[in-house]
Specification:
By secondary structure, the protein is α+β, with helices and mostly antiparallel strands. The chain has 5 helices and 4 strands; from the N terminus they run ββαβααβαα. The strands form 2 sheets. The protein has a two-stranded antiparallel sheet. It has a two-stranded parallel ribbon with strand order 3-4.
Length: 153
């Protein structure tokens, strides 16, 4: 079964939905972050701030992020934000960010990629369209996360 790109109806409020995800290597816990529109640097920064809050709560010193080479992961704006965050974190004893880009065309090295493959197969609708709210609900059910605490504003 393949997912077909849905054509939005005119004046439809939710034309695009981005779902950013992270998986912890130590516990396997997954985090989902939904936001309207296409993924971009600002939405990645919001996700990083939420992940940093989790790391602070657990008294971690470093948050390691391994991600693919999507344009929003390599942007100058994000690099500047991470640099500034790490400078402030070093002065204040806060959690620092360590980011690692995966090699080109190597999705099998991305820890989250296998989770996305299984999720797509599990939630796909063979003969109908899925609304944005239903898609969020199904993804949260599949990953066993709460919808209310996982949405970016």
């Amino acid at each position: 079964m393949r997912l077909v790109q849905r054509q939005p109806k005119p004046k439809e409020p939710d034309k695009a939905l981005a779902c950013l995800g992270a998986v912890r290597q130590d516990t396997g816990e997954r985090f989902l972050y939904f936001c309207d529109g296409q993924p971009n640097t600002d939405k990645v920064i919001l996700m990083l701030e939420r992940l940093l809050a989790v790391a602070r709560h657990e008294c971690r010193r470093v948050l390691a992020i391994i991600w693919d080479r999507a344009t929003w992961h390599k942007s100058k704006k994000l690099k500047r934000w991470i640099y500034k965050h790490n400078q402030t974190a070093k002065r204040n004893g806060d959690v620092r960010l360590l980011t690692c880009l995966l090699p080109v065309k190597s999705p099998w090295l991305n820890p989250m990629e296998a989770h996305w493959v299984h999720a797509k197969r599990k939630i796909a609708e063979p003969d109908g369209e899925i609304t944005a709210n239903e898609l969020k609900r199904r993804l949260c059910a599949h990953f066993q996360v709460e919808l209310s605490g996982s949405t970016l504003q």
